[in-house]
Amino acid sequence: MKHTHMEKPWRAVSCAVALAASVFTATAVAQDSFPQRDIELVVGYNAGGGYSSWAQALAPVLEEQLGGNTNVLVRHMPGAGGVVATNYVYRAKPDGYTIGIFNLGGLAATQTASEVMYDLTKMAWLGRLSLDPTIMVVGSDSGFNAPGDFKGRDRTVVSTKGLTANATITGAVTFDLLGVDWQPLNHSGTSEAILSIIRGDSHVSWGSFDSLKQYIENGDLKMLMYYDAERNPAYPDVPTPSEIGLPAEINEAFNTNRILGAPAGTSDAVVKALESAIAQAVKDPAFIERVEKMEVSVQYLDGAQTSRVVNSAVKGFTDYKDTISELLGSN
Predict the structure, then answer these.
(1) 230-263 as b/e, with b when 16 or more CB fall inside 10 Å?
(2) Where does the signal peptide begin and end (predicted)?
(3) Contact at 8 Å (CB) between 45 and 80?
(4) How do beta strands 98-103 and 157-160 pair?
(5) Contacts 24+ apart (CB under 8 A), 55-63
(6) Using an 8 Å Cβ cutoff, are 54 and 72 in contact?
(7) Which of 17, 156, 244, 267 has the fewest other C-beta atoms within 10 Å?
């Protein structure tokens, strides 16, 4: 009897160890064999837009890189400037089967000035597809030659595409730092905003380099500032914010970064699998061909680099919370 009583605890321990080992093995196998089913790639905007085009270009190539019979299904979930989609991905099960493409600038600004369910600093970042630097522009015949030329003016009108636009927030922070009083003149799109400057209805505007480049090349606009860590080689005389004495964090914090992410808590093994597949996909000739047809370019960063960009952006917006909250509150 004594022998029998002594065997039972050892049997229990053995069973517990075996069970733990089997759970660990099953988890490891599941992660090593990822993916085992279709992956949902969520887009926070309508079909046909820029983010949709990037997702549609990436999805079939990503499928090939992941291998197996996995489909990458693009799902459009518009609403609140991408917030609805971001909340959805953030709250999804962190198993790698729900990922998203995000507009960093707009989401960071919203997180700073509003109550949201997501926290960008906690998400698992998989990489950056593109960077579209913001630029400050004026009419070619306006007489303005530098950002400091706006200091001391009684009236400066900024041509905008709405107060919640990332470019408008960039302009608001810039003018706040320069001590420039301004008022917005809102328009429904880029062409209307630019026409306003050309006609002389407004004095200055901010927008993405890709969307405004054609107006600079044809002589309608002049670029006064380029928001990035370094000057644009094609425009070597145009300074970055830090070069005119503004804080270095706004060099890149407010730019349009198109980034890919997964829910917080996604395992390292799954993140690594997705990140590796994305890194190979952006070099795939089929993807490059699709991007070239979109007349845009890839500025890829890996997950760790993307995470640093995200943290910098959130800090940048947090540092200017009062300015951003006042701007968004007046919308």
Answers:
(1) eebeeeeebbbbeeeebeebbbbbbbbbbbbbbb
(2) 1-30
(3) no
(4) unpaired
(5) 55/101, 57/287, 57/290, 57/291, 57/294, 58/101, 58/129, 58/278, 58/281, 58/282, 58/287, 60/286, 61/281, 61/284, 61/286, 61/287, 62/277, 62/278, 62/281
(6) no
(7) 17
237 & 157 share domain: yes
What is the pTM assigned to this prediction?
Answer: 0.72
What is the overall mean pLDDT for the chain? 87
d(CA 82, CA 86): 6
Q: How far apart are CA 151 and CA 179, in angstroms?
A: 7
**Domain limit, last residue, from 250, 272, 295:** 250
CATH number of the domain residue 86 falls in? 3.40.190.150
Of all helices (H) and strands (E), which one includes residue 133? none
**What is the C-alpha to C-alpha distance for residues 93 and 23, in angstroms, rounded to an integer?**
19
d(CA 129, CA 91): 23
Residue 99 bridge partners (DSSP): 41
The residues pairing with 158 across neighbouring beta strands, listed in sequence order, are 184, 204
Q: Is residue 2 part of a domain?
A: no
- Looking at residue 330, its pLDDT comes to 62
Helix (H) or strand (E) holding 264: none
User: What are the pLDDT digits (tens) for 76-132?
Assistant: 998 877 889 999 999 999 999 999 999 898 888 888 888 889 999 999 999 999 988
Q: Minimal CA–CA distance to 129: which of 315, 266, 291?
A: 291
pLDDT in tens, 282-329: 999 999 999 999 888 899 999 999 999 899 888 878 878 888 888 877
Q: Which residues contact 286 (CB under 8 A, 6 or more apart)?
A: 60, 61
Tell me the helix, strand and coil percentages in the chain, rounded to 5. 50, 20, 35
Question: What are 33's two structure tokens?
Answer: 């064999």
